[in-house]
Structures are given as structure tokens and as C-alpha cells.
Amino acid sequence: MQLPVSRARAVLVAAIGVSAATLCGATAAVADGPTLVLNQGIGAVRMGESHLQVALDYGSFCAKGCPGKVSVGQYGMTTVSYRVPGGNLVVAFRFNRVALLQTTSPRYRTSGGLGVGAKLPTASTTWRGFHSTRCHDGSNLWAQSGKAVTTRLRTVSGVVKAVEMRVLSLPQPNC
Questions:
Q1: Phi, psi of 35 (to 5 degrees)
Q2: Cα dihedral: 30, 31, 35, 38 (round 10)
Q3: Less packed terminus of the chain by CB within 10 Å, N or C?
Q4: What CATH number corresponds to the domain at position 129?
Q5: What is the number of other CB atoms lying within 10 angstroms of the CB of residue 172?
Q6: CA–CA separation, 145 vs 118, rounded Å?
Q7: Considering the entire predicted model, what is its pTM?
Q8: How far apart are CA 31 and CA 37, in angstroms?
Q9: What is the extent of the structural domain holding 159?
Q10: Quick check: is 111 in a domain?
């Protein structure tokens, strides 16, 4: 079995014990594809992946001079925001594992075309396994839960503005 370049790099790094900080310059080329897989991942990031795996694909989490902007916040999670074509990709880690993903980039799509910029029905409260909740600000939040992850689509006037995936063990946000 042949590993993708980004995963092969992760295996090599783990085997020789090189730190992610050492690879800051070597990870400038992102192995980021335009895929969105509901309840699983966005681009090259998968729910549950380690800090190191994401750093190898998107760049180190340096505070200055590296691709990701880092903050530590709610629930003790480390959050890294990357600028990607058309928007942002936000990755939050809890216990060194991806616990939350969010994007505002229309680049990421499911095989059926669902993603930021897609049009959803406005006259329905259910659609393709998603359930809609009307929010106080006039937007809608469409949610679909899997075994361990919920995917949420924030829509305004029926158009998806953001996609978020969050592990079920985290408190789920209100509208």
C-alpha cells in the first residue's frame, strides 16, 4: 500500500523523531485537496488527527512567521486558523487531536457539490439527513450527526456561508 505524500512524511518524521517546528520551512507546500466529507473532514484534515499530522500538511503552528495563526481558548482547545483560497480553514485541537473543523471557503465540496456557496431549500426543515433550526439572527443552522461528529451548515437566505464539524463530546453550540 502506498501512502499519500503528506502521510508518508508523517510516518517518516515519526520514525526519525524530527519535531514539527523543525519542519516549518519544509511544509510550505500544502497537500490540501478540495474535498469535504460530511462528519469526517475538510481538505487534508480529518477529525481525530494529531497536531503533527495537520502541521505536516498545512505548516507548523509557529506564533510568528508560519502559516497558521494560533490561539488557545474555549474548552482548553488550541485553535489554528489558516488562510485558504476563498476563505479560512479553522482547526481546533483538544487533547492534541482535531476536535473541530470549520471553513468559509467555497473550495471544499462534497462529491454531490455541497459546501460554502451551495443553495439549500428554504421552505423545508429537513434535507438529505440534515435538520434545520432557525437562529435569532435570521440565519439557519442545518445539522447532521454521525456516530462521533456533527456537521453543521450555517445558511443565510438558503446559501451556505460556513461548514463546521465538531466532535459530539464537545458542547454543541446554540444558534
A1: -90, 145
A2: -90
A3: N
A4: 3.40.33.10
A5: 11
A6: 20
A7: 0.78
A8: 16
A9: 32-167
A10: yes
Q: No. of H helices and E strands in the chain?
A: 2, 12
Going from the C-alpha of 22 to that of each of 34, 55, 82, the distances in angstroms are 27, 11, 19
Counted residue by residue, the chain has a size of 175
Instruction: Compute the chain's Rg from CA coordinates.
Output: 17
pLDDT in tens, 14-26: 433 433 333 333 3
Q: Which one-letter DSSP state was computed for residue 174?
A: P
Domains in the chain, number? 1
* 86 within a domain of the structure (yes/no): yes
Domain assignment of residue 23, yes or no: no
**Spatial CB neighbours of 69, under 8 Å, sequence gap ≥ 6:** 80, 81, 82
Distances (CA, A) of 27 to 8, 61, 96: 13, 11, 19
pLDDT tens digits for 116-137? 999 998 888 999 999 999 999 9
3 state DSSP class of 151: strand
Amino acid occupying residue 131: H
Three-state SS at 85: coil
Rounded Cα gap, residues 70 and 91, in angstroms: 10
